[in-house]
Amino acid sequence: SAASDVYKRQMAQYMKEYRMRKAAALLVAGSSSVAEIAAAAGYGSQSKFAAAFKQVMQLAPSEYRKRYGKK
């Protein structure tokens, strides 16, 4: 049904945002590479992870780390 399709899309978006927030925390911590964080977030491709991260967080992973990471 249309209602279940909407729910599935909302749930998928929520899960994507949740994974990106977890990835952002790992980026700020600074001990893992972007490739390792991409894999931990469930992405087989670093470029697909970077695109998804930028869509959610408005910054590329490397820029996010530069801006918010430990100095």
How would you describe what is shown here?
With 71 residues, the chain is an all-alpha fold. Helices cover 77% and strands 0% of the residues. It has helices at 2-29, 34-40, 46-57, 61-68. The longest helix is centred in the N-terminal third of the chain and has 28 residues, at 2-29. The mean pLDDT is 93.
Question: Strands, helices and their partners?
Answer:
Layout (H helix, E strand, L loop, with lengths): L1 H28 L4 H7 L5 H12 L3 H8 L3
Helix pairs in contact: 1-3
Short description:
The chain is mainly alpha-helical and 71 residues long. The protein is built from four helices and no strands.
Question: What are the defining features of this structure?
Answer:
71 residues, 4 helices, mainly alpha
